[in-house]
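Researcher: Go.
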Amino acid sequence: MKINKNTMKSDEKATFELRGLYEKYGYSRFKTGKFEEYELYVRNKDFIAADSIITFSDTNGKLMALKPDLTLSIVKNYRYIPGYVEKVYYSENIYRASKTTHAYREILQTGLECMGDIDIYNLCEVTALAARSLSAISSDYLLEISHMGLIEAMLSSVENSAKEQIVKRISEKNLHELHSLCREYGVDEETDRNLEILVSTYGNYRKVIDRLKKLNLNREAAQALKEIECICSALSANRLARNINVDFSIVNDMSYYSGILYKGFVRGIPSSVLSGGQYDRLMERMDRKAGAIGFAVYLDALDRLDADENPFDYDVILLYDEDTDAADVLRIARSIRDGGEKVLTERTVPSKLTCRKLMKIENGEVSTVEYNG
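Model: Structure:
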């Protein structure tokens, strides 16, 4: 059966495109169940960033949860093989509060994970796939990248009690509070100044990297900066860097993330539709001897695109009466659908439903009826 992508909703179309994209890169489908032991999420609640989780007791009294996240389940089932990189993608429902409605929803989430002895090529490939995933949703997209390792290296002289607060101010781009914290915790002037430059520098990777190279960075920070440069240069060589910006206000929990971070946006949606990064420390916490990087695409956010692009419930409402031959209704409706339009057949115009065009069958022929919506 041929699939007509013109009749799909944005999330359905994106799912179809993304599955094909990931399979072309050699990623295999990972399927999970709907439930997981609640304890898994309690131990890693900061990683999933869910305020609350839907739980229930199974028949033996064990507390279970409807999955609010898929990465943890994939990591839980991962088995390390030296020298091997496992590449999987998923397209499954999760259960959490929607970013758009803030109510619990069954949300279709698509994404990928790359786990094992990952190298610079794997980092480049996943970053390229993040960019291409956004491109599959809209040509008007922006992928923003950061590096948790660079931020952590620049904070190496800062005591642990202050790091979390400073990282929060970096995420807010709040220079006033950042300087206040640095003074409060006795951070040296050079580090304070470097953090200001880090927060203030944003945009094209060449501009950002050239400016940060002028700083007196320690070895770990310089290595992290070099890693970003290698990734962006590789994507630029493959014409994928035009819609990529570097923004170090993108941060995440240092107890889970260690390297590249992502946030992806498309025009028409105010929140990010893609996020992820390198989470080697999560692997360590779950006793997995491997590195890992991945991202998720939040398809529930795409509902907003459908509302913007098509304000109507149907392209065509096709009316018929009791004297109309059923064969004629099937034939005419099919011919309209074959043209890529969404058709509802009814005997009267339904209340509270709208269409671009109202049509009617009379004596085996179809005509357009004046319609004011």
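Model: The radius of gyration is 25 Å.
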